[in-house]
Design a protein that fits this description.
alpha/beta; 5 helices; 4-stranded mixed β-sheet
């Protein structure tokens, strides 16, 4: 079962997706890996996980939330899942490098594979792939676009957080 809804954000319209139990996707409209909406999908903004995600994203963009408490159900390989779990540990207002993530999962030589997994993260913002930067601190690829990545990082500056 695939359920979805649309929300408006300060950075553009977003598609939220669920399998009914957990959040399976959160994508900016027209981003690099935007999924096609299937014929068998149901638009259902009242689905509890979608309503909860929409509320928490609203709080995040209003500066009232710096972490999410949602059931997540991203679909991916075992390696991708490992990388995405590691991303969840990056505190709001900080950045890490792809090398940091590779070391964190015990695969220090897998920086490129980590980069590919980060790039395919299906639950942007909630699984904070925007907090990963190049080894020199430069902003690197983001499926939602570098301008959005820059805006998300600026939004999360420590002085903007609740504390």
């Amino acid at each position: 079962m695939a359920e979805y809804c649309w929300i408006e954000s300060p950075l553009g319209r977003m598609l939220l997706m669920s399998d009914g139990r957990g959040l399976t996707g959160l994508h900016f409209e027209r981003e690099k890996y935007f999924p096609p909406i299937g014929q068998d999908w149901t638009e259902s903004p009242a689905t509890p996980v979608l309503a909860q995600a929409a509320r928490q994203l609203g709080e995040y963009f209003a500066g009232e939330r710096d972490r999410f408490d949602l059931p997540l159900a991203p679909s991916g390989t075992a390696f991708q899942q490992c990388v995405w779990r590691e991303l969840l540990g990056i505190p709001c207002g900080t950045t890490v490098t792809y090398g940091d993530i590779a070391r964190g999962i015990g695969a220090p030589k897998s920086v490129r594979a980590v980069g590919a997994a980060v790039g395919r993260n299906p639950i942007s913002i909630v699984v904070p792939c925007h907090r990963v930067v190049g080894s020199d601190g430069a902003l690197t690829g983001y499926a939602g676009g570098l301008e959005r990545k820059r805006a998300l990082l600026a939004h999360e500056r420590p002085r903007d957080l609740l504390g």
